[in-house]
Design brief:
CATH class of the largest domain: Mainly Beta
Helix content: 25-40%
Radius of gyration: 33 Å
Shape: elongated
Number of domains: 2
Number of helices: 7
CATH topology of the largest domain: Lipocalin
Distance between the termini: 90 Å
């Protein structure tokens, strides 16, 4: 074959091969388009039906981040977080996005990879998207508040609850510092030491003492068990020292108490908002306790129920509105320990990390049962203003 003819034949072959390749590319493109069309149509019916089609689309084009994210979303819907994390992580490598990274953080948290999730959330606090920043701040705050359960077994709690009682024009003070050490791997059992006090501005000692609030300093230690979520049982032994002298009674006495308490609730979502929002998120909580106190030779029980809404959230602050009911009862039938109250209140949380709350409440109450020795009317109204500090920390 002459050179000119060989050259022409080679060119014809190359053109034929090029046309074949273009046709194959068009066929592949048409095939992927067809798969995705059927996949999105199936997604309208059921994620389970769409799953094999999206998996097929990813196999045919593994570099498409949109398809990867959609497949990851289907895995989330089907409760397959490990598979979902794989797809979102691949999509993030192909096309970085704060939205994808946020989904990765939530999946890491769902899989128990708390440190990875915390790192990812913290990195999103510098996002340019205010909504993502708000979610990252909220998650980071939640990790900080839960930190104690993830660290070593030493813990300590500071609690103080001073409040003003308008009915008696009395400022009532109380507080305690407790230090403990958990000695089982699940954190259910601890030994602890505690120092606490209660006092007020109206009570007086003397031959005829006027007592509005027990004025005492208590030092003790014991064991705490938390066998179930929300349930706590304390056994404590120590001494109680009266801050006011009482006729015929020693200043320092042994103090033993056994107290069981249980709390459960539906709580508003923890929100760190970049601007004021009014979520009106519902919450409800119930707390009940019963304790045998040697100081009073009495068993005293409390029941509290509260329900309301988170009316405002802004930054690290929040405002709640609520209704509340309280019942107190004892085995001695002392009038001041047998009370039922209904109240309404507003709670201001200045900063979630501080563990501080300010509550203003209006109460309508009644003494229940015998009124022997009661110098007051059976029914009463009062206003109470609380400042509560409650923080548990570890080291």
């Amino acid at each position: 074959m002459q050179p000119r003819r060989r050259w022409a034949a080679a060119m014809a072959l190359l053109c034929a091969l090029g046309q074949t390749g273009q046709a194959q590319d068009r066929a592949d493109s048409s095939s992927i388009f067809d798969v995705l069309t059927r996949a999105y149509s199936a997604l309208r019916v059921s994620p389970a039906e769409a799953l094999p089609l999206f998996e097929q689309a990813v196999q045919r084009d593994s570099t498409n981040p949109v398809t990867r994210r959609q497949l990851g979303s289907i895995y989330v819907n089907l409760n397959r977080p490990a598979d979902a994390l794989r797809e979102f992580a691949t999509a993030q490598r192909l096309r970085p996005s704060d939205t994808t990274r946020l989904q990765i953080a939530y999946l890491q948290q769902a899989l128990g990879r708390q440190q990875d999730a915390r790192t990812t959330f913290e990195s999103l606090r510098s996002s340019n998207d205010p909504g993502i920043v708000s979610q990252a701040e909220s998650a980071t705050l939640l990790f900080a508040l839960m930190e104690c359960s993830e660290r070593n077994p030493w813990w300590w709690r500071v609690y103080a609850a001073p409040y003003y009682e308008s009915r008696f024009k009395d400022l009532i003070l109380s507080g305690a510092v407790t230090v403990g050490h958990t000695f089982d791997s699940l954190g259910r059992y601890s030994w602890f030491g505690s120092a606490g006090f209660s006092a007020d501005t109206r009570s007086e000692s003397g031959a005829l003492p006027q007592i509005y609030q027990d004025n005492v300093f208590v030092l003790g230690g014991g064991l705490r068990a938390r066998p179930l979520a929300g349930l706590s049982v304390d056994l404590q032994a120590g001494i109680g020292a009266d801050l006011l002298k009482r006729p015929g009674k020693a200043t320092v006495n042994p103090d033993f108490r056994a107290v069981a308490s249980y709390g459960i609730g539906i709580y508003p979502p923890l929100m760190v908002a970049q601007h004021p929002v009014w979520p009106f998120a519902f919450f409800a909580e119930t707390y009940v306790s019963a304790g045998d106190y040697s100081r009073y030779a009495n068993v005293i029980s409390y029941l509290q129920a509260r329900a309301g809404v988170r009316a405002l959230a802004y930054g690290q602050s929040a405002v709640d509105l609520y209704l509340r009911g309280d019942i107190t009862a004892d085995t001695h039938r002392d009038f001041f320990n047998n009370i039922a109250e209904l109240s309404g209140g507003i709670r201001f949380i200045p900063h979630h990390r501080w563990g501080v709350q300010v509550l203003a409440e209006v109460h309508a109450g009644t003494y229940v049962g015998p009124t022997t020795g009661n110098p007051y009317d059976r029914r009463y109204d009062t206003f109470r203003l609380f400042v509560i500090l409650d923080r548990t920390m570890c080291w």
